[in-house]
Write a structure and sequence with these properties.
CATH class of the largest domain: Alpha Beta
Strand content: 5-15%
Radius of gyration: 24 Å
Number of helices: 9
CATH superfamily of the largest domain: Hect, E3 ligase catalytic domain
Structural class: alpha/beta
Order of helices and strands: HHHHHHEHHEEEH
């Protein structure tokens, strides 16, 4: 905004496109750019999501509003949101083998899975959660792991998003082999399609 006069033709085209995409039909100009951007922000950040905010507010009992939500500061609300954000450590802590006892080959693959999740960046962690649970949020009740003996071209993780269950073959010889295949599935959009197989 402070260098409006020095915008070159490409930058001005980009600004006009930004205005147009955001439904603002006025031409950007030096005297009004601050007000113009404020109008776009008002529409995008307040007006457009207002029906959603109002619906959410109707779902919160008034007793909760006065005793909890109205007491929160922005910093406390931010801390609350941050505390709910998945991290590799939180996700690893919620991975549990299905059943009381597991065999040594199952324990090895469970270890591979936990090591794999520990090494994920935030974007891949969200993909993993979406793949296994159908959501990018921390799963209620954890993530259960069961084991198969699928081999060769049939070897693949099988997920049941309704129950947060992942079936993994015990026939991996190394962590590198496990990581390569899991990464391949997380980056393949077809792996996210529903199937009854």
């Amino acid at each position: 905004m402070s260098h409006f006069q020095s915008l070159d033709e490409k930058e001005m085209d980009s600004l006009i496109t930004f205005f147009s995409i955001n439904g603002y039909m006025g031409m950007p100009n030096r005297r009004e750019i601050s007000d113009q951007i404020s109008e776009i922000a008002q529409k995008e950040l307040l007006d457009t999501p207002r029906p959603l905010y109002e619906a959410m507010r109707r779902g919160i009992p008034s007793s909760h509003m006065s005793s909890f939500w109205a007491q929160l500061t922005i910093d406390e609300l931010s801390a609350l949101i941050t505390s709910q954000r998945p991290t590799p450590t939180k996700v690893v802590d919620c991975i549990l083998a299905e059943g009381e006892y597991i065999r040594p080959e199952e324990e090895k693959v469970l270890y591979f899975l936990k090591q794999f999740v520990r090494g994920l960046d935030q974007e891949d962690l969200m993909s993993y959660l979406h793949f296994v649970t159908g959501s990018i949020h921390m799963p209620d009740g954890g993530i259960k792991v069961s084991f198969t003996k699928l081999a060769g071209e049939l070897r693949r993780p099988i997920v049941h998003t309704c129950s947060n269950l992942i079936e993994i073959s015990v026939l991996y010889s190394s962590f590198q082999e496990f990581r390569r295949e899991m990464t391949q599935y997380l980056r393949n959009e077809l792996a996210f399609h529903f199937s009854v197989m």
